[in-house]
Amino acid sequence: MKLDSNRVAIVTGASRGIGRAIAVALARKGVRIAALARSLPALGPVTDEVGQLGVDCAPLACDVRSRDDVARAVEQAAARFGHIDLVVNNAGSGSYAPFFDAALDEFHELMQVNYFGALYVTRAALPFMVRQGSGHVVFVASVAGRIASPRHTAYSPTKFAMVGLAESIAYELEPHGIGVTIVNPGTVDTDFFSGESFRDFPDGPRAMMIPASDVADVTVRAVERNRFEVFVPGGLRFAHLVKAIMPAFFRAGARRYARKQGMIPPLIVPVPGEAAARKLEK
Ligand SMILES: NC(=O)c1ccc[n+]([C@@H]2O[C@H](COP(=O)([O-])OP(=O)(O)OC[C@H]3O[C@@H](n4cnc5c(N)ncnc54)[C@H](OP(=O)(O)O)[C@@H]3O)[C@@H](O)[C@H]2O)c1
User: Fold this and answer.
1) Is the full-model pTM beyond 0.85?
2) With b meaning 16 or more CB within 10 Å and e meaning fewer, what string describes 60-72?
3) Whole domain around residue 245: which residue ranges?
C-alpha cells in the first residue's frame, strides 16, 4: 500500500513504545493517525509529536478489551477522517512468570488484550475497508508467537493465537484488496519490561534489545511492500526457519541457551491436600 497523506491509520497502543513509534513513522509519510490507548492524557505526547510533523492525529480513549469501546473508537476515527485504510493492532502487554506463579486470571487478561483486542479492532474496522475495496491490517505479534520460550506460558499463546488469526484471515481478505502483515519483534526497549514479573528477565536477551523505531521502520516498509510476515531484527526469521525444518535440533539448542541464561525455573507446584506448594527439582 502506498503510504501518503491520503491514508488514514488506526494505531492501537499508540501512547508509548512500539505503537507510538509506528504512529510517528506513519505520520512521517503523511498518514493521518487515529491514536488509541486507554486514556486520553497518555496520548498527549504522541498527538503532539504527530502534530509537529504537520499531520492530523485524533487521540481516542479505547480499552481494546471492551467491544463497546472499540466500536465507538473505530466509528469516531471513520467519522473524523472519512475512511480507514490501515489498522495496526499493537496494544498489548506481557508477563515473564513461571507457569504456576502466573495466576489463571493473568492468562485470561493477556488473551483479552493481546488477542481479543486485536480481533475486536479488526472486526470493527474491516467493513470500512471492504466497502472501499482496499486496506491493510498489521498484527504486531512477536517472535514469541512463533517460538515459545520458558516463562512465557501466559504470553506466547496470545501471540500464537494472533498469528493464527492473521494467517487465516489473510486468505479471506486478499480478494477484497486488503493486505495483512504480521510483525514479529524480538526484544524491544520499551515499558513492556517494566512489570514486576520481568524483574528476573535475563541479561542475554536484555542485551539484544532494539529501539522501537527499528520495529516501526520495518513495519512501514512491510506495509508499503505488502509483506506478509517480517521479523525484527531480520535474523530471527532464520531461527524460525531452523525450528520449522529441524525442530529437535532447534529445541536442544534453545534448551541449552535457556539453561545458560537461567531461564528455566524450578517447578513449584501446588500439591493436592497440602497447604504449601512444593518445589520439584529435576
Ligand atoms: N517490547 C518488546 O520486546 C516486544 C517484543 C515483541 C512484541 N511486542 C509487542 O508489541 C506491542 C507493544 O508493546 P510495547 O513493547 O510497545 O509495550 P508498552 O511500551 O508497554 O506499550 C503497550 C501499549 O499498549 C497499550 N495497551 C495496553 N493495554 C491496553 C488495553 N487494554 N487497551 C488499549 N491499549 C492498551 C498501552 O497503552 P495505555 O497503557 O496507555 O492504555 C501502550 O500504548 C505489544 O503487543 C507487545 O506484545 C513487544
Assistant:
1) yes
2) bbbbbbbeebbee
3) 8-280
